[in-house]
Amino acid sequence: MEMIGHGGKEIVERVLSKDAALKRVAEMQAAKVKTLDVRLQLATEIIDIAYGFFSPLEGFMTKADVDAVCNNMTLADGKTVWSIPIVYDISSEDLAKSGIKQYDEVLLTYTGNPFAIFDITDIFTLDTKEVAMKVYGTTEDKHPGVKRTYQYQDKFLGGKITLLNPPKINEPFTRFWLTPKQMREKFQEKGWEMIINHQTRNVPHTGHEWLMKGAFLGAYGSMMVDKARGGVLVNAIIGSKRPGDY
Question: Could you tell me the pTM of the whole model?
Answer without folding.
Answer: 0.90
